[in-house]
Amino acid sequence: DQQVKQNSPSLSVQEGRISILNCDYTNSMFDYFLWYKKYPAEGPTFLISISSIKDKNEDGRFTVFLNKSAKHLSLHIVPSQPGDSAVYFCAAENQGGKLIFGQGTELSVKP
Amino acid sequence: GAVVSQHPSWVICKSGTSVKIECRSLDFQATTMFWYRQFPKQSLMLMATSNEGSKATYEQGVEKDKFLINHASLTLSTLTVTSAHPEDSSFYICSATTGVTNEKLFFGSGTQLSVL
Fold first, then answer.
1. Which DSSP string do the residues of B41-101 spell out, in sequence order?
2. Each residue of A38-85: pLDDT tens digit?
3. Cβ distance B89 to B68 under 8 Å?
4. CB contact under 8 A, B109 and A43
5. How many CB pairs below 8 A link A and B?
6. Could you give the count of Cα atoms lying within 13 Å of B53 in the half-sphere of its Cβ?
7. Which of B6, B42, B103 sits opposite A103 (nearest CB)?
8. A3/A21 Cα distance (integer angstroms)
């Protein structure tokens, strides 16, 4: 039972354009969501998060949007840079504080 | 950010043998460490939560006798895959926390295990 889904395994974007990574979840009890970024041969690192009481959180070029009614969140990166090329995981935190991860989306930003 | 070191990064072993993976927090003390497994094109799945000085808490469906976890100190946790079989071949990754939020969760670089 995949409670957090990232249906796009890969995404290719031109440098300077917007990257939109999507994530869907099934459990309405999730109350905190996080995005992690992973470079090859490295572990994931925390990028940005959002509480379920908000619908938007912005940090520089990164913005996360949450649509609770649709059980959908998205990560926007604008403008995209080649250094943003990585695998992005969304994760939902359950009431026990455990993280449920999506499958990841590999973003490729082309110069 | 804090550094978590995981070794080895890649291991190949014969079926029936045991493999030990180490996870160290290099510049902080981690009271809690987590072990995940990721199959190709699937998500990171939590296997167990490891607290220093106590028995690990395993997720449903994870065999505790097969995946032995030891968290003997505040900076080291080990995962031993006992009597490994080809179906245990996977990417194993650990994480350690400095605090109570998942924003303070730091991951190792992972171990790719291939069982022949």
1. TS--EEEEEEETTSPPEEPTT--TTTEEEEEEETTEEEEEE-S--GGG-EEEEEEEESSSS
2. 998 888 999 999 999 999 999 999 999 999 999 999 999 999 999 999
3. no
4. yes
5. 54
6. 3
7. B42
8. 17
